[in-house]
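Notes from hallway chat w/ T.B., transcribed later so I don't forget. T.B. wanted the structure written out for a chain they're using in a teaching module, and asked if we could keep both sequence and structure tokens in one place. Agreed to drop them here.
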Amino acid sequence: MYADAVLATILQIESEPSHMTEAVAEAPPIRLPDDDAFPERVIKLLQEVFGEERVDMSEDGLAIVVSTDSAVATIDIDTLEIVCPDDNLLSLISSAVKRLHVALTPCKGVTKT
């Protein structure tokens, strides 16, 4: 019974990221990891989520484009800014890219050996 209540609360929080908009608006700008392969890794991640045929690099090579049945999202490679008319798709892509960024960015004070 308690597990059901906890699970319902977690699912509700995950499905309604609107409470996070203030924190995101005040967050510092994102720095890309010192890795030239980061855009390729973003593409691979998004291809796993949406399918290979729906994710591609833009013609000018400055953005990643994700096409779905309902909307098209564009991710700027330099700033990781996402432009998308569909809020749900924007939230999903933003969360995935930010999690990948956090996973690949080294912690402060950690040096390579």
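Follow-up for T.B.: The mean pLDDT is 79. Might be a good example for the class.
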